[in-house]
Amino acid sequence: MGSVMSLSESFQLSYTSVVILMMILSVSAVTSGLSGFGFSAIGAASLWLLPPSLGIPLLMALSSANQLMSLKQIRSDMKPLRQWWPNGPAPYILGGLLGVPLGLEILHSLPTPVLMVCFGAFLITYAGYSIFRRPKQRPNTGGWPSSVLVGLLGGVIGGFTAFPGALVVIWIGRSGLPKEESRAIVQPYIFAMQLVSLCMLAVQHPSTFDARFWSLFATAVVIVLPSTLLGVRIYKSLSDMNFRRICFTLLGTSGCAIFSKGLGALGIGTALALLAH
């Protein structure tokens, strides 16, 4: 109670706003603990309460803590590091490391709102189709060259959408892998991309991580970690089919968030013109 009141005073937010913020982050953590991804997609609602300069780094840091906690809970499903290549997460991570700089270049040189609208619409459509599609009977990820390419494209997309895991989730979903193998690839990939992004942010904008940031992080992480554990518990009770449906539902939700963000950046007139075509 005292920490919530101090946050309310420090960030000039009402007590109610601080409680809502913590609820958003808690739901984000449960969802990500359950599916292995999507913390920032749900947590983006917190940007209604916090400025992006503070909210985005906070989401990145809390999402990293969320991923680390989840990975510890499912470590029995993970392959040893020496087996991450060629059929584990290593090819995806390699591709992602190559793709992130390209995505950041796109962010600064191309009309990213249009790209976000198109990619968001694709995620919504694909997720809706995949929820009802029967999974493959014989899992197949296509080998490590395909994995590197998917990871690279995921890194590129993550550079301008802040959601690098979207393409990897789609690829793993269509491959028909069991839920344990799916998370053992998706989560290390997302965690690696988050660490890279945080390191780049720390080098380029070190003032981001000031006393206000750490005060908010220290309060929120106490809520995020137990919520993550709850999500992982729910995940362990799910069948492969229900896990798959939840993942694609969350993927569609993320698509809606990206789509809306792109429309907002375009403005009403430009967005309507784009949708008309």
TrEMBL record:
Subcellular location(s) per record: Cell membrane
Domain of life: Bacteria
GO cellular component, one term: plasma membrane
Keywords tagged on the record: Cell membrane, Membrane, Transmembrane, Transmembrane helix, Transport
Membrane-related topology note: Multi-pass membrane protein
Transmembrane segments: 12-35, 47-69, 89-107, 114-132, 152-172, 215-235, 247-276
Matches recorded under Pfam families: TauE
Protein family: Belongs to the 4-toluene sulfonate uptake permease (TSUP) (TC 2.A.102) family.
PANTHER family: MEMBRANE TRANSPORTER PROTEIN, TRANSMEMBRANE PROTEIN YFCA
Protein name: Probable membrane transporter protein
Phylogenetic classification of the source organism: Bacteria, Pseudomonadati, Pseudomonadota, Betaproteobacteria, Burkholderiales
